[in-house]
Amino acid sequence: MNKKKVTQLKSFDFNAPLSSHDWKKAVRHLNDLLEQKNISEAKLYCQKILDLDHASDQRNSKAPHLKRPGFKFSFDEIIGQSSKMLKVLNALERIIPTDIPVWIQGESGTGKELIARALHFNHPKRKQHAFMTENCSAIPENLIESLLFGYVKGAFTHAERDKEGIFEAADGGTIFLDEIGDMPLSMQSKLLRVLQEKEIRRVGSNEAIPIDVRVLSATNKNLSQMVQQGTFREDLYFRLNGFKLAIPPLREHKEDLPELCEFFLKKYASKGDPSWSIEKSALEALIQYAWPGNVRELENTIHNAMLFSEKNVVNLKSLVFKTEIFEKPDEVKSANPVSSSQVDRVFVSQNTQDEDREPREAILDAMEKAGFHKGKAAKELNITTRHLYNLLERYGLPKNKWVLKRLLQEERG
Ligand SMILES: Nc1ncnc2c1ncn2[C@@H]1O[C@H](COP(=O)(O)OP(=O)(O)OP(=O)(O)O)[C@@H](O)[C@H]1O
Ligand SMILES: [Mg+2]
User: Whole-model pTM above 0.90?
Assistant: First the structure.
């Protein structure tokens, strides 16, 4: 048997989306063919598998409808057609091919890391190298220097061998320093020196190692205020802030909410099942909410709602666990009206039932189904009994089961 050829074939990029079982079977079959020295058949078989994988890749392509005409770079994963998001994407187009340091500013969950990835993975040269991220708030002060710049054997007690830091690992590529506002002042001056001199020194060594890294940074803190207060170095602030990219909070671009919901329904549908939809009333409830946790909060809400939905339809009932939506409507209502055509575009469910249109009805349904037993009804709604009590109060429903039963009889006949 030609062992070298088998190894070569095994090292083909046999990645998902074919299942690992499929791949194992394929490799086994290839081995058999090679053992029989049937090279031409092996070649054909190999091509067939690669075609299959390619087709499967295309089928699973997350957002084929998002091809953006007029944009040179790929922003497939970034949803948003609102003027505020288009402004961000237009700025991205311009700064992607440069090496300008970018400071990405935005509230938590607005997509800062997503934007940082787009900056790296679209860069003509840097995308071939590593994209390294580090959360500056998560590293203890005494470890941050060795983590960023590496160390040499003997530099400190447990330094048993030389180790590169993330700056070296990102050489030629991009480094994303998240929560930069939490970097201790002592480290800020070391970082500034590295950015000025474009070389690092591992902890415990004097040898300067040249590095070519594009630095992206992000924070949801007000850095200019921190500069004024003396907790962030002004010179570092200007060095990082080659270009400031401000990502809007979701409440300022609610026009994108229908498309975001559609995107997350596809993202979390098992095997990309396209039949998932959201009812108009549920979408309208989502639009009424201010989303303090921004797109991340919306993404989690849709994902959870899908777990609690039946027949692949997210409706108000699937959202009952998220009581804030019904309790804390956005006070700035008129700022970003979402047009009914935007809502209708995503509203694809054909079997909307009137009684599902209000959370009050969803609660009544669950109570009726549970024989007016609050514990069972809460279970049905996937919420706690205490939550159910709050909801009954909120929707002016009687807590006494007999009174509630009578009310239901009167309302529904
Ligand atoms: N415009 C968008 N389109 C699609 N997905 C988005 C968008 N914005 C954010 N997301 C998704 O929301 C989640 C949170 O985004 P990300 O981690 O980039 O936010 P962040 O601003 O870095 O948050 P934090 O400040 O908490 O670190 C991710 O799953 C991301 O893919
Ligand atoms: Mg982040």
Answer: no
